[in-house]
Every structure is written in structure tokens, then in C-alpha cells.
Amino acid sequence: MACAGSPQHQPFAVDAQPLERQVTSRPINLKLAGGFSVLLRGLMLAGKFLFMLALARYTTPATVGVYALVVTVVTMLVYLIGAELHAYTTREVVNPDKGTEREQHIQNHGRVVLVGCLLSLPLAWLVLEWLNIRQQVSMALLTLVLFGEVLCQELGRYLLVLGRPVVSNLLQLLRGAAWMPVAILLLDRSSLHAVDMVLASWGIGCLLAALFGLWHMRAFLRTPRSFTWAWLSNAFSSSRHYFAVALLTHVQIYADRFIIQLYLGESQVGLLAFYQSFANTVQTFVQTGVVSILMPRLLLATQRHHWPDARDISRRMLFISLALLIGMPEVLKMVGHAEYESLLGLFPWLLLGNLLVVAGLIPHLRLYALHRDSLLMRIFLVVVPLAVLANLLLVPRFGVHGAVAVFVGTAAIQTAIKFYFARVATRQSVTAHATEGVPAS
Asked: Which residues, including other chains, have CB under 8 Å from residue 28's CB and lie 6 or more apart?
């Protein structure tokens, strides 16, 4: 291993040789890179934790609600624009034998998402109007955030598959949390409306992160390559199942915020989003800090036709949930707004829902490893409309409590369905494997 001061182990340094040669010729200490990447993800999670705490303390639940709705709109548009085309392009780019084809894949993908950003702006405007918050949000700042988020999402994915996990996670830290301390300092000092001030900080953070990512990807962008419609057709055909699952997942996660806004207003959205942000810590930590590490073992277990050991995931998510339950009363004291205390009783239920979602990751990954992508899509096509319909029925009558009940109920149903079909798929895989090994009589 090279010494710590050598250029190849400095996160911000780039060797003189082209990036495509770096990716294939430079040895990577995966354990060290993985540990550092988890540390960076932990810093990002901590930043978001403190930011939500400060936002709740220095503003009103209505402001928190508007911010949560903006985050929801941006997140869903990012996945709509990206269309999960990376599922196709990253598989092509990771192969160094592709030569200049890799540049064409990356540049084609970049052109598509940039055009998608432009086309999505009228949709963003209409959604903000529908939610009755357009007057509280600067479209110029929202445009900056949207372009930055889309670029950072795709650049981070490419850097990861090209063997630059630390650089990728540094980009995500810049995009996701490095700007938050500035926003916190300005919350009670800026003359800007709180939401616009947050959007300005967020947009600048995304812009710096995008420039950082483009610098590290410059070897693939120097020589312009022509766009081909055949590429777009192949990419969309290859990624359509991933796209449907990703989009439906986000509809399931965020539909309750839209419905609460339409029936109850942004203050109730803010109260729910506050607790959701902390409850989601369980899912976020497990996905970034545990599942990513266990992924090779999960896939290896699938190949050997037995269930992987999920005790590591179970222990960690139960520990985090217990810590959050114990710490939440202290968090509420720091916030100092009585409105949030009124919904404290819902927090354990939100944690339970997130525990169920995390439990569903094991059969989800198993179905993914067994190439049951279309089956996963069909599961979401059943559960998501059920969740939306239940929210439409229960939120007007029971308010936020109804939304939480729907979240827990649909999480339980979806996880149970995934476990059932994962077991069926495993038996089919084992039978097919055994049949292939038996000589014909």
C-alpha cells in the first residue's frame, strides 16, 4: 500500500494518467475505501440530523412542511428524469475493453438527463401549484437544485462503478450535507425567506459537488461523441423494470405528504416529516452502512441456494431504534415547540414501519439476485396503489395518525409478500439447479 501522502490515496488528487487507466490499473484497498466511505455517509447522516433539528427549532412547522414538500418534489423528479438508465450504462462503462464506447455511453446519458431536467420544469411548476406552495418557493433556486441533484446523482454512480468509492462519497457529502452548516447559521439571520435561503445553500452545494464530480470524470468528457437514438432505446429497454420499481418506491414513501398537504396543510406535513426524518435513520444507516458491506455475502448466499444470515442487520437496526426512542424526548426539548410533542406517540410506530421496510431488504435483494426484476415491479404495482387509496380514505378522517397506520400496514404487507415470493423463487432455483445436475435417463 502506498504511503498516506501519495497522490493516488488523496481523495481530491487526480493522477496524470487518464481516469480510464486509473480505474483498471490502480490497486484499491477495498476494506479501507469501504470504511472511509461509511464514515463519509455517517457524516452526511449526522449533518442531516442536525439540520432538521435546527430547521424545526428556528422556524415553524409550516416552514418545515414546505421544505419537506420541496424535497419530495425534487427527489421524485430526480428519479423520473434519471429513469434508472444507469442500470444499463454503468454495466457498459465498467468494462475497460469498451474503449471509446464508454465515453459515448456517459455523454449520451448526460445529454438525456440534462434535456430531462429542462422538460421537467413545467411539471415542477404545476406540482407546486397543485400543492399550493408555489408562491413560497423560488423557481430559479429550485431549477438550480434540480439540475445539481440530477448531475450529482449520476456522477456519483459512475465514480462508484469506476472504482472511486471515496470520491463518489465525498461528492455525496458535498451534495447532501456539507452546505447544511451554512444554512443553519443563516436560518435566523438571513433576510431571505427560510425556504429560499435553504434552497440557495442547497443549490450552491450541489453546484460545487457537480463541478467536483465533473473534474474527476473529465477524461470521459474531453472528446465529444455523437448521440444515437439506438442507445436511448437500448438503455430504456434494459432499465424499465428498475425505473418502475424506483419510481413506485418513491410514490409509496412520499404520497402521504402530498395527501396530508391537500387535506390538512403544510403544518401537519412538517410535523410528520420531522418524525419521519429521524425514523428513516434506521433505514438509511442500514442501507448505506450495513447492506452495502454485506452485499457480496448476500449474493454469494443466493448462489449457494440458502438464506443469508441477517443477524448483523437485525442487531444494528434494533440498536438504532432503541437509541432513537430514548433520545427523542431530549430532541424535542432542544426543538422547543409544543406542536411536535403532540405526535410523539406516533414515533414508535414510524420506527416499526421502518424496521419492517429494512426486514424486507433481505427478500428484495434475494429476488434481485435471482433476476426477478419484473416480479418486484408487480409487487409494487399492487402495494403502491393500495397505499395511496388507503391514505385518501384515512387521512381526511384520522389525519397524520391515518397516514402512519397506512405506512406500517403496507410495509408489513409488502415485506410478507416479498418473503413469500423469495422463498418460492429460491425453491424454483434449487430445483432447476438440481435438475441440471441430473443426467437424462
From this structure: 163, 165
The x, y and z cell numbers of residue 401, run together, are 395518525
Extended beta strands in 157-288, E state = none
> Which residues, at least 6 apart from 308, have a Cβ–Cβ distance to it below 8 Å?
294, 297, 298, 301, 302, 362, 366
CA dihedral 69, 75, 79, 82 (to 10 degrees): 120
The three-state DSSP-derived secondary structure of 45-86 is HHHHHHHHHHHHHHCCHHHHHHHHHHHHHHHHHHHHHHCCCH
H or E element in which residue 264 lies = helix 229-264
Task: Give residue 133's identity as a one-letter amino acid code.
Answer: I
Q: What is the mean pLDDT of each run of 10 residues along the chain (441 residues)?
A: 36 33 44 66 80 88 94 93 82 68 85 92 95 92 94 88 82 89 79 82 94 90 83 83 83 91 94 87 61 50 52 61 72 78 87 84 77 82 92 94 94 92 79 58 39
Cβ contact 259:130 at 8 Å = no
Measured between alpha carbons, how far is 82 from 110 in angstroms, rounded to an integer?
A: 10
Domain ranges of the chain: 26-227, 265-430
What's the whole-model pTM score? Answer: 0.81
For residue 32, how many C-alpha atoms fall within 13 Å in the half-sphere facing its CB? Answer: 9
Q: Are the beta carbons of 359 and 412 closer than 8 angstroms?
A: no
